[in-house]
Amino acid sequence: MDNKYRFIGKRTPRLDAPEIVTGKAKFLNDIKLADMLYGKVLRSPYAHAVIKSIDTGKAEAVKGVKAVLTWQDVPDWKGGTPRFTRILDRKVRYVGDAVALVAATTEEIAKEAMHLIKVEYEVLKPVFDVEEALQPDAPQLYDEFPGNVVTPGVPFFGPKNLKEVVMGDTEKGFKEADVTTEGTFGYENIPNPLPPEPPGAIALWEEPNRLTLWVSNQASYMDKITLFHVMGREVEVRSIGGPCGGSFGSKFMSWQVQTYAALLSRATGKPVKIVFTKEEHLAAFTVRPSSRMHARVGMKKDGTVTAVSGKWLIDTGYYSMTTQSQIAVGCGEVQIMVRCPNWDLRPVIACTNRNASGIVRGFGGQELKCILIPLLSLAMEKLNIDPFEFLKKNFVKPGDGYFWRDGLWYTYRGVDFSPSMDKGAEAFGWKDKWKGWLTPTSVKGSKRRGVGVGVHGNADIGEDSSEAYVRLHPDGTAMLFSCVTEHGTGQRSNYAKMVAEVLQIPLENVSITPSDSLINPYEFGPAGSRGTYAIGSAVIRAAEDAKKKLLDLMAPMFQVKPEDLDTSDGVVFVREDPGKKISWKAMSIDRTITGFGRFEPDYTLTNCMMSFVEVEVDTETGKVDLIQVVNATDAGKIIDPQGIEGQLNGCLGSAGIDSALFEETILDRSSGHILNVNLIDYKWRTFAELPAIHSVVLETPFPSHRFHAVGIGEVATSPGPSAVLMAVSNAIGLWLHEYPVTPEKVLMALGKTGSNRLNRSNSLNCSNGIHGG
Amino acid sequence: MTLKTGRTSKRKPSKARSISFTVNGHDYTMKIGKEANQVDPAHTLSHTLRETLGLTGTKISCDHGACGACTVIMDGKAVLSCMTLTVECHGKTITTIEGLGDSETGTIDPLQQSFIDHTAFQCGFCTPGMIMSAKAILNENPTPTEDEVKEGLSGNFCRCISHYHVVEAVLAASKRVG
Question: How much is the pTM?
Answer without folding.
Answer: 0.95
